[in-house]
Structure of Serine protease:
Amino acid sequence: MVRWRTLTGLLAAALAAVTAGSLTLAAPAAAGGGTATPYVVGGTRAAQGEFPFMVRLSMGCGGALYSSRLVLTAAHCVGATGTNTSITATLGVVDLQSPSRITVRSNYVYRAPGYNGNGKDWALIRLATPVTGLSTLKIANTTAYDNGTFTIAGWGAAREGGGQQRYLLKATVPFVSDSTCNANYGGEIIPAEEICAGYASGGVDTCQGDSGGPMFRRDAGNAWIQVGIVSWGNGCARPNYPGVYTQVSYFASAIASAAASLGG
C-alpha cells in the first residue's frame, strides 16, 4: 500500500530528458477523453520567482534550498551518508528547460541517522558551489505552524502513474490530524515524526517525482516556513488517503546540527 513519491526507471530517464530540453511530455488523458491540464494533482502552474527556494534533483526528487550550499530533501531519495558527486540540482526556474536555469553538482550527502525506510525521512545534499541570488526556506522549529492550510509544489506527476512535468506546479492542502490519518492508513503513520495533509474527497496531492520537496505555509511574519517534506502515500489524490510528510519541526534540531557539520 505504501509508495514513496519518487520517479524510477523510465520516469527517471524522462526527467533527465526534460531537464536537458530533449523531451516534450504530452498532457495526460482525461477520464472522459480529450486532454487534462498537466497540473500537479489538482494544482496550477507556479509563477517564475514565486517559490525561489524550490530545487529539482536529477534522481527524480524535489528539495528546498536550506542554505546557499545545502538542499533539504527526503532520505529515501539518496544513498548513505558520504561523498556523492552524482546528483545535479536545478534551481532558479519554474521551467526545467529554461536557458536561465542554474545547475550545480553535489559533493556530499547526509542521510538521517538511523534511517531504515520507516520514518526519519530527511536528508541534506551539499552542493559543490554555493548558489547566490536565491531565497532559502527556513524550517519550522516548533509545532506552532503544523496546522492550517499548506502549500505544496513540485515537478512530479500530474496524475497517479503520470510522468515528470516540465513546469513547477503548486496546490494547497489542509492539515489532517494524526488520528484521522492513522485510521486511514491502518496504523502505518508515525505520529511524532510525520504530518498529513489532503482532502477527504481526494483530488489534490503530491505524486510520483515530488518526493523530498517541501510543504510550507506563511509564518507570523508572513514569510514562508517549511513544515513538511514529501514522503509517501497510497496512490495520488485518492479519497481518504492524504499525503504523508516528514514533520520538520520534530527533526529541526537534528537538521540544524547536520547542516552545521556540513558548513552551515
User: Anything to note?
Assistant: The chain has a mean pLDDT of 89. The first helix runs from residue 10 to 20. The chain has one domain: 44-262.
